[in-house]
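seq:
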Amino acid sequence: MEKLRIVFMGTPEFAVGILDTIYKNNYEIVGVITAADKPAGRGQKIKYSAVKEYALEKNLRLLQPTNLKDESFLEELKSLNANLQVVVAFRMLPEVVWRMPKFGTFNLHASLLPEYRGAAPINWAIINGETKTGVTTFFIDDKIDTGAMILSDEITIGKNETAGELHDRLMNLGSTTVVKTLERIKNGNVQTTIQSENPEIKTAYKLNRENCKIDWTKSGVEIHNLVRGLSPYPAAWCFFKDNEQEWNIKIYETLFEEEKHNHTVGLILSSKKEMKIAVTDGFIKILSLQFPGKKRMTTQELLNGIVLSEKAIAL
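struct:
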């Protein structure tokens, strides 16, 4: 039985949870590859990726290539003499990289493949009102998230669960699934399943300003799912308009109350304690939100400092 020598590739917090589990299970990590440092925030200070922070803390060999086809990077990668590569929330790899190790390169994806291939699987599962999701390990091939599947594990999604909460649960589940996958590879008993293809498969498109905007003409459930599917990041948004003033608002927490009414869709009904917005089939109760230039706050905190007129509307 050949000992695994692993190169790990990943960038965000989600990947750190998996890397930490591999490390704590005493697998040999011969190298960690993460995104190049980049300036962030108002001061444009150089920010390290979450995976880089972890690799430095554990004194792991670190590579930060800007070009994955660069000859000097490929030479360095080859010199690590890895026989397996594990990828979690990184970027698309050129064939010369994923074909390099003897046991191949596998990826952990935060969905039950083939559903929700793409950049934002956790968000879209909630936005689309799914009641279950999970994680899948698969061997990388030349397309995005299409390779032969090794293992998948499933969890249910809570009715009011946010993307942030689901992210953390999937990170824990993914850690277990990755270790089970490593065991199978180490013991030489990997069996793979080819992903099915059909036009009904849902895609986890990249999030952008347009698909994060709230459309108040949609049903209450759809709006509530959009808000929780984008909370806490990047957050669903809309405009509030009151008389001559207009604000760009982020909304983080809502509840949907089904009710028949005669109000205009988008009308904001607020008292000293609560705020709700009329939708076609009831009201969206706003629990926390953020006004421009202010921090995120509860609706009650906001209403202590602002009074909206009876004509205020969400657009």
